[in-house]
Amino acid sequence: MNEQETNIESDGFLKYTLQVNASPCQGEADLAFGFASAVVARGHELSRVFFYRDGVYHALKGAQPADPQTAKIGRWSGFAQSHGVDLVVCSAAAQRRGVWTPEEDNGLARGFRVAGLALLVESIMTTDRYLIFG
Amino acid sequence: MGVLHVLGQPPSSREAWRHCRQRMVARDALLLVADAVYAIDQGALLEPFQVKGVSLYALLPDMLARGVRPDEPSRRVGWVDFEEFVDLTVKYQRVLMW
Amino acid sequence: MRYLCIFRKTPVGGSGARESFDLMLTLAAFDQEVTALLIDDGVFHLLPGQQCSEEGHPLPALWQSLEMYGIDSPWVERESLLARGMNQSCLSIPVRVVSRDFLPDFFAGFDRLIGD
């Protein structure tokens, strides 16, 4: 199947999957957020953002919005709410870093949910573009 | 259509720059983001890419944040904002970050 | 869809390499056409004799079992090997070799490039 042809059929609007590997304090996290916002602004569909590797730290609760640095952690929650974007944290990567445990399934920031890599793969398979940040 | 290579490493990370450059050909594009935009003030780093004939872009907000001024007279590098970054990914379906 | 998983970094230290590898295996588990390419420091993945510790450095064994996941022998860039004093015959598993000059054309054969 030729992707370019698909673009034409869909009026140039594409479906994106983003993967964020960077922690909230790394520059690539800013790049990911800026890109995600622009995908939506351009009228494309951002179906899912998958937080993998150190990206899972984005799902930590307790950011204090007063500090611009930590506000960066909370901005995804607001973004997801405004635009209906599915924020998914990789369960294995989150467990490995102590961000989430199956026993205490309530510790994530608003808008985030936990799922396995299979969900990422399903997204990659069904979207036109897939970008990895960090 | 080639590959959109996105490079965020500072000019001092010579290896990263070299590794990226070595895998590029004329049909590819290079987008400088984050600390890579400092290279705009050091033309020597961009020259080999120009010789190859690749399309050069830089993320304007990252330039402004670092005080890197757009090189108005020569315009070797196309400045893009985030939405134009998205446009580049529409054009280039393969993206590789360095 | 054809996927090229590109390994550019050293395998030990941190969990990054393992997590890139897991993504590749998951793609393969969904019957996607997955190819592995090792360039730059990524070629160290295939240095023989790496000791697998309890703390989880199972990658050498996983590379050995790629076939089980339906993934063919990885491709390795010749120049990356040479620059590190290595060659095809000293690696832990059989590989296919691609030259640096050909890589841009090689990339064109895939729909998605997945960096590590």
What key attributes describe this structure?
heterotrimer, A: 134 residues, alpha/beta, Hypothetical Protein Ychn, Chain: A, five-stranded parallel sheet, 5 strands, 40% helix, disordered N terminus, C: 116 residues, 19% strand
Task: Indicate the topology.
The complex is a heterotrimer of chains A (134), B (98) and C (116).
Chain A: H1 3-9, E1 15-20, H2 27-41, E2 45-51, H3 68-83, E3 86-90, H4 91-96, E4 112-115, H5 117-126, E5 129-133
Parallel strand pairs in A: 1-2, 1-5, 2-3, 3-4
Helix pairs in contact in A: 2-3
Chain B: E1 3-7, H1 14-22, E2 29-32, H2 43-52, E3 55-59, H3 60-65, E4 78-80, H4 82-91, E5 94-97
Parallel strand pairs in B: 1-2, 1-5, 2-3, 3-4
Chain C: E1 2-7, H1 16-29, E2 33-38, H2 59-64, E3 75-77, H3 78-83, E4 96-98, H4 103-107, E5 112-115
Parallel strand pairs in C: 1-2, 1-5, 2-3, 3-4
Question: Could you walk me through the main structural features you see in this protein, from its secondary elements to its overall organization?
Answer:
- The complex is a heterotrimer of chains A (134), B (98) and C (116).
- Residues 1-9 of chain A have low confidence and may be disordered.
- In chain A, helix 2 packs parallel to helix 3.
- In chain A, strand 1, helix 2 (27-41) and strand 2 (45-51) form a beta-alpha-beta unit.
- The two termini of chain A are 29 Å apart.
- In chain A, 40% of the residues lie in helices and 20% in strands.
- In chain A, strands 4-3-2-1-5 form a five-stranded parallel β-sheet, sandwiched between helices.
- Chain A has a single domain (3-133), classed as 3-Layer(aba) Sandwich (Hypothetical Protein Ychn, Chain: A), CATH 3.40.1260.10.
- Chain A is an alpha/beta fold.
- Chain B is of the alpha/beta class.
- Chain B has a single domain (3-97), classed as DsrEFH-like (Hypothetical Protein Ychn, Chain: A).
- Chain B has helices spanning 14-22, 43-52, 60-65, 82-91; strands at residues 3-7, 29-32, 55-59, 78-80, 94-97.
- In chain B, strands 4-3-2-1-5 form a five-stranded parallel β-sheet.
- Chain B is globular and about 30 Å long.
- Chain C is of the alpha/beta class and 116 residues long.
- Chain C has a single domain, classed as Hypothetical Protein Ychn, Chain: A (3-Layer(aba) Sandwich).
- Helix content of chain C is 27%, strand content 19%.
- Chain C is built from four helices and five strands.
- In chain C, strands 4-3-2-1-5 form a five-stranded parallel β-sheet.
- The longest helix of chain C is centred in the first third of the chain and has 14 residues, at 16-29.
- The two termini of chain C are 19 Å apart.
- The chains are: A alpha/beta (134), B alpha/beta (98), C alpha/beta (116).
- The B-C interface holds B 2-3, 19, 22-25, 27-28, 93-98 and C 6, 8, 39-40, 79, 100, 103-104, 107-108, 110-113, 115.
